[in-house]
Design brief:
Blueprint (H helix, E strand, L loop, with lengths): L26 E2 L2 E8 L16 E6 L15 E9 L3 E6 L3 E6 L5 H11 L9 H4 L5 E10 L6 E6 L2 H4 L13 E10 L2 E5 L5 E6 L12 E11 L4 E8 L22 E10 L2 E6 L4 E6 L18 E9 L6 E4 L28 E11 L2 E6 L3 E6 H5 L8 H6 L6 E10 L4 E5 L2 H4 L14 E10 L4 E6 L2 E5 L15 E10 L4 E5 L23 E9 L3 E5 L5 E5 L14 E10 L2 E5 L10 E9 L3 E9 L13 E9 L10 H7 L5 E8 L2 E3 L3 H6 L13 E9 L3 E6 L8 E4 L20 E10 L4 E5 L2 H4 L4 H24 L12 E9 L6 E5 L6 E4 L1 H4 L10 E10 L4 E5 L2 H6 L14 E10 L3 E6 L7 E4 L20 E6 L7 E3 H7 L18 E3 L21 E3 L8 H5 L8 H10 L2 E4 L2 E4 L2 E2 L2 E2 L17 H7 L23 H6 L6 H8 L9 H23 L8 H10 L4 H13 ...
Parallel strand pairs: 11-13, 16-18, 21-23, 26-28, 46-48
Antiparallel strand pairs: 1-2, 2-3, 4-5, 4-7, 5-6, 7-8, 9-10, 9-12, 10-11, 12-13, 14-15, 14-17, 15-16, 17-18, 19-20, 19-22, 20-21, 22-23, 24-25, 24-27, 25-26, 27-28, 29-30, 29-32, 30-31, 32-33, 34-35, 34-37, 35-36, 37-38, 39-40, 39-42, 40-41, 42-43, 44-45, 44-47, 45-46, 47-48, 49-50, 49-52, ...
Helix pairs in contact: 20-21, 21-22, 21-23, 22-23, 23-24, 23-25, 24-25, 25-26, 26-27, 27-28, 27-29, 28-29, 29-30, 30-31, 31-32, 31-33, 32-33, 33-34
């Protein structure tokens, strides 16, 4: 570095540098000044002109805003209240400065009342939130203060009249003088005012007062009359609103009596570079207006003409120069306007503080900074100070400002909103714009954040941290132990409280709070008795312990309530149970672990909740003393069986609730603390519950899903003393057996896991939940799981039979008689009732009904029961004749079908856990197929290929029951880890014939894993006969050559892993007698298929076929067209034969034409009938084409697609409807948008995006109203709460939204917040809307059984407005509806005492008479009539 030394010249004269003009030299108290010579007036004697002295005065050549340098001590300044707390005000001052006003700086009267309140007398005390509201204009004396370090200056604003008006004297007070006074005393006839003016006493009469004021409250006072005396003056005053404090007299000569906030007439005399110059009080005083204080933010100076008068409000007066500074913005609002709208322009929403504006356009370099245009309609500014802070050291000012050329665009962050200048102040600093956490609004209680340690805080013995730009505090009690802390160290913490008043948030880095499963109490309304929350001990006393939860909520734990001695210490973080709650006071206790994991207890059902079953466990008390009756003392433990823990199967949950009514006894297994399970009783009864020590690598244990994301699943394993969740990746659950199958896991879902490793030091388990790791692949286990499912269904049926439920009388396969009741409009299912006194409901699902024509209402039909839904108390039936004929009641599996594969069946129903199939041939019971092979079969591979209504090949996997799986699944798993003892022992006892090779030595090779077996043909039993075979003539015995040919050409079938051929009789498969008197058809290949697979005589090679599927393929195209999936084999063979074409005669042709014409006519009539039920897409297309602007038609079409699970098509159709319906049909478009939002919420994940689009295309208020209804129907409580907040912020001036929000609060269980909501509404809405708003709230209170509050509201209304007959009627009707007849009678007695016009009194007496006629006696009716007659007589006499 080169030293910078002073250079000395070599001889000659030293040229001194010219003094640079100091920019601040002309700044005198808020305005740049310059001396100007003012020429004197011409005189008669021009020779005397040289002797006349020159008149010099200070004249401002700019109108700069107020800043900390030009603000003088004890200077009077106007301010606007921006924020209110019970103990302080935040006041916005000119020049984008802020000041605080404390309780002691309001008035002398308020200080007196506050001191009395501290002593216990709170009768006259009201905190500052009751005395001030944001937007209130005040003026006071500014006081500069410095913090302890001396590096920052803050402002205090004193509003005390004694300090603000200390320079005023009572003799100078005139009529019309406006000032700010405080209520010193409230008397019966008015208010005594604390003026602060020496010798002035003021009084305001109550009759002319427009609002109720409190002692110490400030108000604007206008002197109406004044009487002067030598030592004091007495004034009679009136209250005026802040918008009406205009000074009418323009002859005021003393600026001290023109107080800040007053409205004066301003005359423009000159346009300055940064504002306007003019005068007030008939050009008596010079006045200036800065360019940021114009009437609207984006106004130009040129819009204000010279020599024109404008109303302006006084901001402040410079003490020495007496220069007056004004603002043309008379209507100052505390918050940004909800929208700025001009003709033909869109409404611009206000910008939230902390948000980022991507393209802010530079308008000009203005006063104090760079003026920006935000979102095309809003004004912003980047201060020069903010720009300079981005550069360290020397910099070129012109070069820096060159990038802020006119119309250039910049990315800025909104730092705040100035209410006086009505513009946003911004910053384009990269570290500010790119910060993710900028303000407290970006942090929520309960969030897990990464904070950086800034410094040590000795006051709290903790640390001060930063989360982005937000200051945070980490107190000692919330510090994690055994952690080293250093400045600059990042910490992972949880937000426990966000304090907007102190502008700080409180954190904790303790491991107890960092647990993802943490249940943190953040809202007092959610503190329900019995709930358990994590809290921290902040104070320990001999008799109690003080515990703190989230958001500053505190609870107290009394040591006397603890059954055992427990030691506590400050900073201890653990779980606490809420024992009781009295308003804000919460009493706590410790949660008790009375039972261990897996412990099975006898329980009693005490209540049925939406969340599950509430239970009670009675056990012997710890003490051995007896009760008063001499019996051992017992204690009760209350627990809960969640709904998902009632059964492993979703469709049986509600059925389990039905069979466990209140008062019933059962057994339940403890899961954790007070949570019990019904589904896990069998598991824990047969297994020893292991702890962490006894668990071994390779053990397969039970677990349940705690939380599931797209990538990771958190599982809780059934291991005692191990409460940590284990993580399993979703990819490790998939076998990819089914392509593109999503893995859907829900909380409490059962999964088995295998222990892969065990770390004793860290007490950690590593597990795998992959299907192949936890399941041997034995299909016998799958069969047993289905058997357990059927046993559970049977137990439910038995339980319902014990309580005489009608649904328990029916069984699967039973034939019943039903009566058609109609079609469900939503699901399109056919609704029936079973004949009989019980009137049990039955359904034919729309998938089974298909496109069939619905029968007439009330018609009787025969049906067969496919399944009994005990949860919904409904029978699932089929009314098809083919199903009625082919389905029988249940039976055991015949021995010849054990392990049988290749059986063709039709899928009738696909339920949540099982699939019901019907064998194609014969009269057979239904076959049960599992949806999943194992609880860990998350891909549902057992039923992925089964679709309702399709045919499939199945294989039986149970030895006794009709339980099967698809044949391809059976082939995949049949050889996996199966012992010989588990293999089916059924083998053919007939001779096996080897299939001779076809010509040219081509062999029909079929692979049969795990060993190759020869293709054999099973010869039919000699003595096996069916009933049908006995009725038919005996066929001829085939010759040896024919037998040999049949053996060569027969199609092989699979039986227990062996290839066998079906014996043929005249080309048809023979039905043989089965066991148990039932007919079971063995699906063999017909003769035609055999011929196709035999080698052709021309020597061509035989086509190779996959084993087990030969019966699936149809070789004859004519047969494929005519065959029906529900016909028997004889019909198939008959229709398969080609029919010979026969020429029709003329008569037959004529009949055919008439028949075809009749068919077409029926189609046309059906299409033309508007009442006809629509069943196809074509019919719906015709409907929407005929009525393109009718939203009902489009919604019916959408509902039809949704009933067929065509979600994407329904979404596309909604978009098509929006583009088709005319833009003038706003209501129709809104209906479609509502349907689209409902669809996205129920089936999609783009609800927020669709909502934004709907708000742009429709009236936002109407859309938000629709969204509230949609969220209620879908029970989206959290989303509804945020939506209500948005509605209140955006549409608070709309009267109809307040009852809507109040009704939603009742629905959310926030009834305690409705009254405060009403108070907010009355503050925002105009006076003419108050009555209707109060009446609406009263009706809501009455509707929600809060009659006392409703009566209070309506009573106040009729007392204040007795002439409102409609309110009297509403009041009386509400009381009558609530059954409060005496109260209604008292209200009517008050009403008839009012002095009203005859037409109004007639309404009241009619209402009174109707009440007595309905609920009174003859005497009371006569009394009302007599009162009415007397009133008429008195009124007639008064008129005469």
């Amino acid at each position: 570095m080169v030293p910078n030394e002073k250079s000395f010249p070599r001889g000659g004269t030293i040229h001194t540098d010219a003094k640079t003009a100091d920019n601040n030299s002309n700044i005198v108290f808020g305005a740049s000044q310059k001396k100007v010579k003012k020429s004197s007036k011409p005189k008669d004697n021009l020779l005397d002109l040289g002797d006349e002295p020159v008149n010099e005065q200070l004249e401002a050549f700019s109108a700069e805003t107020l800043n900390m340098d030009t603000l003088q001590e004890d200077m009077l300044v106007m301010g606007v209240v921006k924020g209110v707390t019970p103990t302080a005000l935040q006041v916005a001052l000119p020049g984008r400065m802020f000041a605080r006003t404390l309780v002691a700086d309001i008035s002398e009267a308020y200080t007196r009342v506050a001191k009395a309140a501290m002593s216990g007398d709170t009768s006259d005390y009201h905190d500052l939130t009751d005395l001030f509201e944001p937007g209130r204009i005040v003026y006071g004396r500014a006081i500069k203060t410095e913090n302890l370090n001396g590096n920052r200056t803050t402002l205090l604003l004193s509003l005390k009249p004694s300090e603000v008006h200390s320079n005023l004297h009572h003799k100078n007070i005139k009529k019309g003088f406006i000032f700010s006074g405080a209520i010193e005393e409230i008397q019966e006839h008015g208010y005594v005012i604390e003026t602060g003016v020496q010798g002035l006493q003021a009084f305001v009469a109550c009759e002319e007062s427009k609002q109720t004021l409190h002692v110490g409250q400030l108000a604007f006072i206008k002197v109406q009359q004044i009487q002067h005396d030598t030592h004091k003056s007495t004034a009679t005053c009136v209250l005026v609103e802040q918008s009406q404090i205009k000074i009418k007299s323009q002859n005021e000569s003393n600026l001290d009596y023109i107080l800040p906030g007053s409205i004066v007439r301003f005359k423009v005399s000159k346009h300055l570079k940064d504002g306007l110059k003019g005068s007030i009080m008939n050009e008596s005083f010079a006045a200036y207006i800065n360019e940021h204080h114009l009437a609207t933010p984006l106004d130009a100076l040129e819009a204000y003409e010279v020599n024109q008068d404008y109303y302006a409000r006084v901001l402040y007066v410079m003490p020495l120069t007496k220069l007056v500074y004004l603002t043309l913005n008379l209507d100052i609002k505390p918050d940004p306007e909800t929208g700025i709208e001009e003709e033909g322009d869109e409404e611009v929403e206000p910008i939230q503080v902390g948000s980022v504006v991507e393209k802010a356009k530079v308008l000009r370099l203005g006063s104090g900074g760079v003026v920006l245009l935000l979102n095309k309609k809003l004004k912003g500014i980047i201060s020069f100070k903010s720009i300079r802070s981005n550069y360290k050291g020397n910099y070129d000012k012109d070069e820096v400002l060159s990038k802020y050329g006119r119309k250039t665009k910049h990315k800025v962050r909104i730092l705040g909103y100035d209410v006086i200048e009505s513009m946003y102040y911004c910053s384009d600093a990269p570290n500010v714009v790119d910060e993710k956490v900028f303000s407290l609004t970006d942090v929520n209680t309960g969030d897990i954040v990464t904070a950086k340690i800034v410094k040590k805080n000795e006051k709290i013995n903790g640390w001060t941290l930063k989360i982005g730009k937000v200051t945070a505090s980490l107190e000692q009690v919330y510090l994690a132990p055994n952690v080293r802390y250093e400045v600059g160290q990042p910490l992972r913490c949880r937000v426990l409280e966000v304090n907007s008043e102190r502008r700080i948030c409180y954190l904790s880095n303790r491991t107890e709070y960092l647990d993802k499963g943490l249940k943190l109490l953040t809202d007092l309304s959610s503190a329900q008795v019995g709930n358990v929350y994590t809290g921290t001990v902040v104070r320990c006393d001999d008799s109690f312990v003080l515990v703190k939860f989230g958001n500053g909520i505190e609870g107290i734990l009394y040591r006397k309530n603890l059954k055992a001695q427990s030691s506590f210490f400050e900073g201890q973080t653990t779980k606490f149970r809420i024992l009781s709650r009295n308003k804000d006071k919460i009493t706590l206790t410790l949660p008790e672990d009375k039972f261990q994991l897996g412990e099975i207890c006898p329980v009693e059902i005490t209540n049925a909740l939406d969340a599950g079953l509430e239970i009670k466990i009675t056990y012997a008390a710890d003490d051995k003393e007896d009760d008063e009756e001499g019996l051992p003392k017992t204690e009760e433990f209350v627990g809960l069986i969640p709904l998902r823990l009632l059964s492993d199967h979703l469709e049986l949950l509600q059925a389990q609730v039905r069979v466990h009514p209140v008062g019933s006894l059962t057994e339940a297994a403890c899961i954790v603390q007070n949570i019990f399970s019904l589904r896990d009783v069998a598991y824990f009864s047969s297994q020893i519950t292991k702890d962490f020590k006894s668990i071994q690598v390779g053990d397969i244990i039970r677990s349940y899903v705690k939380n599931a994301t797209d990538q990771v699943v958190d599982l809780m394993v059934s291991v005692r003393d191990y409460n940590k969740p284990v993580k399993v990746h979703v990819k490790m659950l998939r076998l990819n057996a089914v392509k593109n199958t999503p893995v859907e896991l829900v909380p409490e879902q059962l999964l088995m896991v295998k222990v892969l490793s065990k770390e004793p030091e860290t007490k950690t388990l590593t597990v795998s939940a992959k299907l192949t790791d936890v399941w041997s692949g034995d299909l016998t286990d799958t069969a047993k799981s289905v058997e357990r499912y059927l046993d559970e269904v049977a137990q439910i049926k038995t339980g319902l039979a014990e309580i005489s439920a009608p649904i328990a009388k029916y069984s699967v396969g039973e034939k019943i008689s039903v009566v058609f009741q109609g079609i469900n409009s939503e699901s399109h299912d056919w609704v029936y009732t079973v004949e009989g006194p019980s009137k049990t409901s039955a359904l034919v699902l729309s998938s089974l009904a298909g496109s069939a024509t619905a029968p007439p209402l009330g018609s009787k039909h025969q049906a067969v029961v496919l399944w009994v839904d005990y949860s919904s108390d409904v029978l699932l039936i089929s009314n098809k004749k083919v199903d009625i004929d082919h389905i029988s009641s249940g039976g055991d599996l015949p021995k010849n079908l054990i392990g049988k594969a290749g059986m063709k069946a039709k899928v009738l129903l696909k339920l949540e856990s099982v699939v019901l199939c019907s064998l194609k041939k014969g009269i057979n019971p239904l076959v049960i197929c599992p949806v999943r092979l194992h609880p860990n079969d998350v891909e549902n591979s057992a039923s992925a290929g089964l679709r309702q209504g399709d045919f499939c090949n199945i294989a039986f996997i149970h030895d006794n029951q009709l339980i099967a799986v698809p044949e391809d699944v059976w082939r995949l798993w049949r050889g996996a880890k199966r012992s010989n003892a588990e293999e089916p022992a059924v083998k053919a006892k007939k001779a096996k014939l080897e299939v001779e090779s076809p010509p040219k030595k081509a062999k029909l090779e079929v692979e049969t894993p795990p060993k190759k077996a020869k293709l054999t043909v099973e010869t039919p039993p000699k003595k096996a006969k069916t009933d049908e075979a006995k009725k038919k003539p005996k066929p001829e015995e085939p010759s040896a050559k024919k037998k040999k040919k049949a053996a060569e050409t027969a199609t092989p079938t699979i039986t227990n892993g062996q290839k066998k051929n079906q014996p043929l009789t005249n080309g048809k498969a023979r039905e043989t007698a089965k066991q148990n008197g039932q007919l079971f058809f063995e699906d063999k290949a017909p003769a035609k298929k055999v011929k196709q697979e035999t080698p052709k005589t021309n020597g061509t090679d035989t086509k190779k076929r996959m084993p087990g599927v030969s019966s699936f393929w149809e070789s004859d195209p004519n047969q494929a067209k005519t065959n029906s999936s529900d016909e028997d084999e004889d019909q198939d063979a008959a229709e398969a034969q080609p029919a010979k074409k026969k020429r029709l005669s003329a008569k037959e042709k004529a009949k055919a034409e008439v028949k075809e014409e009749q068919r077409l006519r029926e189609i046309e009539e059906r299409n033309a009938d508007p009442k006809a039920r629509l069943e196809t897409i074509d019919q719906y297309e015709r409907l929407v084409i005929a009525q393109p602007n009718n939203s009902i038609s489009w919604l019916k079409y959408i509902a039809f697609l949704l009933s067929n699970t065509e979600i994407e098509k329904a979404r596309d159709l909604a978009r098509r409807a929006i583009s088709t319906i005319s833009f003038r049909e706003t209501q129709e478009l809104r209906n479609v948008w509502s349907a689209l939002l409902n669809m996205e919420l129920a089936y999609g994940s783009n609800f927020d995006e669709v909502l934004k689009e709907a708000l742009k295309c429709n009236d936002p208020l109407e859309i938000y109203i629709c969204v509230v209804d949609i969220l209620k129907k879908n029970k989206q409580r959290e989303r509804l709460s945020s939506t209500l907040t948005t509605i209140l912020n955006k549409f608070k001036s709309q009267a109809r939204i307040w009852p809507l929000v109040a009704e939603s609060y009742f629905w959310l269980g926030k009834s305690d917040q409705v009254h405060s909501l009403l108070q907010r509404a009355l503050k925002v809405l105009p006076n003419q809307e108050h009555i209707s708003c109060i009446v609406s709230f009263a009706k809501l209170y009455a509707r929600n059984d809060a009659n006392d509050m409703a009566q209070t509201l309506l009573d106040d209304v009729v007392t204040s407005y007795p002439k409102r007959i409609d309110i009297w009627s509403v009041y009386v009707d509400m009381l009558i509806k609530a059954g409060l007849i005496d109260s209604a009678r008292n209200v009517l007695e008050r009403a008839v005492l009012q002095k009203l016009k005859p037409n109004k009194m007639q309404v009241i007496y009619k209402k009174y008479l109707q009440l007595e006629e309905s609920h009174g006696t003859e005497a009371t009716v006569a009394k009302v009539k007599q009162q009415a007659e007397e009133w008429v007589k008195n009124y007639t006499m008064a008129v005469k």
